[in-house]
UniProtKB/TrEMBL annotation:
Residue stretches making up the Fe2OG dioxygenase domain: 213-316
Keywords: Iron, Metal-binding, Oxidoreductase
Protein name per the record: Fe2OG dioxygenase domain-containing protein
Upper classification of the organism: Eukaryota, Viridiplantae, Streptophyta, Embryophyta, Tracheophyta
Organism the protein comes from: Leersia perrieri
One Pfam family matching this protein: DIOX_N
Family named by the database record: Belongs to the iron/ascorbate-dependent oxidoreductase family.
Length: 384
C-alpha cells in the first residue's frame, strides 16, 4: 500500500486535504470540467513516464481474430499465440450485437452526463454496494489520481435491481442495457476460455465451466472527460487486471496502450471489435504461460468529447464464500508433465487474498502478481 495521502509536503501542500475535498464533492472529475477548469489540481499530477511510445505500426502486434472462422484449430492457434506473446487481442464476429454495444456506450454516457445530484445518490466507496459511482477506487492509496470517473456494477451471477443505479437512470432502459451487455460479455468470455483451455492442452470446459473463471462479471464503466492538461496526468495508470479475463468495449476515440517490449503500444479501436486481455489470475493458473500485460489509458486530449469504455472483468462468483476461499494455483497438468514439467512460478492463493492486495496497493505502477511469485521464481525474467 502506498502511503501517498498521509503527510504534508515540504512546501506546505496538504495532499490529504485536497483528496478529501475532491472526494466530498461527489461530482467526480467531470465536476471540474463542468466548472470550466483550465488547469488540473495537483492531486492528478503524475511524474513524466520515461517509457517510449511505439510508432503506430507496432499496433499490428495486437491481432484481430475472427471467431467465426470455420477452422477452430486455427482460431485456437491464433488465440494461443496472442495470449502467450502479447496478452491482448481483438475479436470480431463475437456474437455480441452491434446495436447492444452502441447502446451500452450510450448508457454509460447518459449516466455520467445526467445532473450531478443524481449521481451523488450512489457515490460511495463502500465496496459491499453492488452498484456504485466514484472517481478513482484507489484515491487514497495511489501516488496520483487519474482523470476519470467510474460506474461499477457487480453484474453476474446475481445482477442488481434497477433501482440500485439510482434515479432517474434506473427508471430508463439504460440500466437494463448494461446488464444485458454484461451477460453477452460473460458468454463471450466463456467461449474464449474454451479456446484458451484447448490451447493449453486441457479439456475445453476446464477454465470456464469447471474452474468457474467467468461465473462472476464486474462491469467497470469508465468515463474520461476532456483534460485541459493531458501531459500532466493519465486516464488510467499503468496496471494489469484483477481478473481471469477482461472483455473491453471501447468507443472510437482511442487512448488504450499496452506495454510490449518496453514500449507503450496503441490498442486502436476496430469497428465492431471487442478487446480481450489476459488477467493476472489467468497468468497465475497457467503458470506464467499466458501473459497478463500491463496497460494504461492516456488522458483525453479532446476539448469537447469524453472517452467511454466498458470493461467486463470475468472472475469467480465474488458473492460466493466457496469461491472466495478456494485456492487457485498453477494447473497441475502444466507443471507435472512426463519430462518433469515446469516449476511452479506462483503460490496458490485465494481470490480474496489477491483482491485485497490489489485494492490495498492501488494503481501504484507495480504489478500485483509479482507479490505472489515463489522465491525460486524470483530470479526469472519478469513477464511484464
Amino acid at each position: 500500500m502506498v502511503d501517498s495521502a498521509s503527510a504534508m509536503s515540504s512546501d506546505g501542500y496538504d495532499r490529504l486535504r485536497e483528496l478529501k475535498a475532491f472526494d466530498e464533492t461527489k461530482a467526480g472529475v467531470k465536476g471540474f470540467v463542468d466548472a470550466g477548469v483550465t488547469t488540473i489540481p495537483r492531486i492528478f499530477h503524475h511524474p513524466p513516464d520515461p517509457t517510449p511510445v511505439a510508432s503506430p505500426s507496432k499496433s499490428a502486434a495486437i491481432p484481430v481474430i475472427d471467431l467465426a472462422f470455420p477452422d477452430r484449430d486455427s482460431i485456437v492457434s491464433q488465440v494461443s499465440s496472442a495470449a502467450e506473446s502479447v496478452g491482448f487481442f481483438q475479436v470480431v464476429n463475437h456474437g455480441v450485437p452491434a446495436q447492444l454495444m452502441e447502446s451500452t456506450l450510450a448508457a454509460v454516457r447518459s449516466f455520467n452526463e445526467q445532473p450531478t445530484a443524481a449521481k451523488r445518490e450512489i457515490y460511495t466507496r463502500d465496496t459491499s454496494r453492488r452498484v456504485r459511482f466514484n472517481s478513482n477506487f484507489d484515491l487514497y492509496e495511489s501516488p496520483a489520481a487519474n482523470w476519470r470517473d467510474t460506474l461499477f456494477c457487480q453484474a453476474a451471477p446475481d445482477p442488481p435491481r434497477p433501482e440500485e443505479f439510482g434515479l432517474p437512470f434506473a427508471a430508463s432502459a439504460a440500466a437494463a442495457v448494461l446488464l444485458e451487455y454484461a451477460e453477452h460479455a460473460r458468454r463471450l468470455a466463456l467461449a474464449v476460455l474454451e479456446l484458451i483451455s484447448s490451447a493449453l492442452g486441457l479439456d475445453r470446459d476446464r477454465l470456464g465451466k469447471t474452474m468457474g473463471c467467468a461465473e462472476g462479471v464486474s462491469l467497470v464503466s469508465n468515463y474520461y472527460p476532456p483534460c485541459p492538461e493531458p501531459d500532466l496526468t493519465v486516464g488510467t495508470g499503468r496496471h494489469s487486471d484483477p481478473a481471469f479475463l477482461t472483455v473491453l468495449l471501447q468507443d472510437g476515440m482511442g487512448g488504450l496502450q499496452a506495454l510490449l517490449d518496453g514500449q507503450w503500444v496503441d490498442v486502436p479501436p476496430v469497428n465492431g471489435a471487442l478487446v480481450v486481455n489476459v488477467g493476472d489470475l489467468l497468468e497465475l493458473v497457467s503458470n506464467g504461460r499466458l501473459r497478463s500485460v500491463e496497460h494504461r489509458v492516456v488522458a483525453n486530449r479532446s476539448r469537447e468529447t469524453a472517452r467511454v469504455s466498458v470493461a467486463a472483468f470475468c472472475n469467480v462468483d465474488l458473492g460466493s464464500e466457496n469461491s472466495w476461499s478456494r485456492l487457485y494455483g498453477p494447473i497441475a497438468e502444466l507443471i507435472s508433465g512426463e519430462d518433469g514439467g515446469e516449476r511452479p512460478q506462483y503460490r496458490s492463493i485465494t481470490v480474496a487474498e489477491f483482491l485485497a492486495h490489489y485494492d490495498g496497493k492501488g494503481l501504484d505502477g507495480c504489478p500485483a502478481l509479482h507479490h505472489f511469485r515463489l522465491p525460486d521464481a524470483a530470479g526469472t525474467t519478469p513477464l511484464h
